[in-house]
Amino acid sequence: MAQDTLLKGKGKLREVRRTKIRRLSVVVDLQDFLAPPIILEDFMKLQGSNPDPERYRVIDLEVLVCPEDSNVVLTSECAKCPRFIRRYRDEIHCVETLT
């Protein structure tokens, strides 16, 4: 996580945090609902082939670790946060108020 500093609004010093986005491809079994989702690379190692589209779906997820509370969140959830500035390439930019 990279950090920059800038001056923004009402004389408060704010720190801009840049957090990398992680992309995951997850395989979901459509016939066995009790089977846990598995990462695509692990599925290919175990099965030796790509998932059969009749039985499995591959879901692409974009996640990151929130710098405020250290929870893993979807990138789409960041837009709801009041500290969110923008998404730029493979990063989420948000601010933290310094006192």
Report on the structure:
- This protein is mainly beta and 99 residues long.
- The chain has one helix and eight strands.
- The strands form two sheets. A four-stranded antiparallel beta sheet has the order 1-2-8-7, with no helix packed on it.
- A hairpin with a 5-residue loop joins strand 1 (2-7) and strand 2.
List the helices and strands and how they pair.
Layout: E1 2-7, E2 13-20, E3 22-29, E4 38-39, H1 40-47, E5 56-65, E6 72-74, E7 84-88, E8 91-97
Query: What fraction of the residues are assigned to beta strands by DSSP?
Result: over 45%
- Could you give the count of β-strands? 8
Tally of separate domains:
1
Kindly report the spatial arrangement of strands forming the biggest sheet: 1-2-8-7
Helix content: under 10%
Output the structural class: mainly beta
Sheet having the most strands? 4 strands, antiparallel
Q: How many angstroms separate the termini?
A: 21 Å
Radius of gyration, rounded? 19 Å
String of helices and strands:
EEEEHEEEE
Query: What integer is the average pLDDT?
Result: 87
Number of helices: 1
By oligomeric state, this entry counts as single chain
Low-confidence stretches: none
Overall geometry: elongated
Outline of the structure:
By secondary structure, the protein is mainly beta.
What are the main properties of this structure?
99 residues; mainly beta; four-stranded antiparallel β-sheet; elongated
